Amino acid sequence: MAATNDLRIGIIGYGFMGRTHSNAYKQVPQFFDPPLRPVLKAVCGRDEANAKAFAERWGYESIETDWRKLIDRDDIDAVDICTPNNTHAEIAIAAAEAGKMVLCEKPLSMDLKQGQQMVDAIEKAGVPNTVWYNYRRVPAVSLAKQLIDEGRLGKIFHYRANFLQDWTISADLPQGGAALWRLDAAAAGSGVTGDLLAHCIDTALWLNGKIGDVCAMTETFIKERTHTLTGKVEKVGIDDACAFLCHFENGSLGLFESTRYARGHKALYTLEINGEHASIRWDLHDLHRLEYFDHRDDSIVRGWRSVHVTDGDMPYMKHWWVPGLQIGYEHTFIHQFADFLDCAAQGKPCPPTFRDALATQAVCDAVLDSAEQRKWEDVVPV
Ligand SMILES: NC(=O)c1ccc[n+]([C@@H]2O[C@H](COP(=O)([O-])OP(=O)(O)OC[C@H]3O[C@@H](n4cnc5c(N)ncnc54)[C@H](O)[C@@H]3O)[C@@H](O)[C@H]2O)c1
């Protein structure tokens, strides 16, 4: 019998994100005082032995090998989707129709049309929901939001973001199947645009508002790769690299770049915002620091400061150690889940909601369309 404040979770997928989310479920009650108590009820994966091993390691009470069975269960309140992108829509819509709360990995969907169907289902069901664009909850990025909202930057002129990796440069790397589904357009939808730029776009929409139009270019450097599932050499359908310009509705200009061919960079997500009074910049490889330059400082001490975001009055930090001691990547998921529990207790969606993630999807679609058409594209308002 569940206690009234239990939130019984069924997680689907036990890969990279299955682990980060499971860690969050276990850590939130230790460091926050959530109104709901997460109960790790079931993990679902197609391989029974792997699902059992995962359940044992993380403390899930049971396993399923078919996500439909998980959704049918009366003892599951929230479904967490940690599977490849081509599975999100079907699972999320079925879960919403069954009245479950839904936490979904990013990108929301394969394209805008599919994303709209997901938003329609989730909003019709009126269930709490969130999409795991976790970088919003890096304390330094949350602090950037606070500084912008306080007006410290003044009018914003430029927004610049990069997400650089180097793990697909070898032509011998196959596409498709476990671990390599990101290189298979049928499973991933797109390449770096949906996988990496979607994160940059979510943060940008949150920090700097709506994007009106975009002009993009994409490239697929390795045109054919062996497909793990068929064993045949097949055309590669994803974008290996993407860069785009955009206009934000607040009048600022955006410049975004992502690639998996930047030798030496593993997961270099950087952003910089230049305003009339001040600028900020942030770097995932040094995620606990926020760089800040304020032109209003006395000229003799004016310069870029590197703010170590560890004090208790900085976003989320009062829940952790003592000033000066930093936290890391896994905490972004812990923060998002803590916020989700607060929202879920009030029956509300938790930003970024499915609708917020649809706005990111609209930009991704416009970027891919622009690159294909070789012209500026308006972003469809959502
Ligand atoms: N928020 C982030 O920063 C972030 C980071 C990585 C991945 N992601 C997203 O998370 C999702 C999963 O990515 P990942 O890196 O964890 O992938 P992964 O390959 O490590 O894990 C995917 C899991 O899904 C399982 N799976 C696939 N099809 C399934 C099905 N039909 N039923 C049940 N299980 C199924 C696989 O067996 C595996 O356990 C993707 O949408 C990805 O874009 C988000």
Automatic annotation (TrEMBL):
Residues 7-129 form the Gfo/Idh/MocA-like oxidoreductase N-terminal domain. Residues 143-281 form the GFO/IDH/MocA-like oxidoreductase domain. The keyword Ribosomal protein does not apply. It is an enzyme of class 1 (oxidoreductase). It comes from the Bacteria. It holds the Pfam family GFO_IDH_MocA. Its EC number is 1.-.-.-. Keywords: Oxidoreductase. GO terms for molecular function: nucleotide binding; oxidoreductase activity. This is Putative oxidoreductase YdgJ. It comes from Tautonia plasticadhaerens. The gene is ydgJ_1.
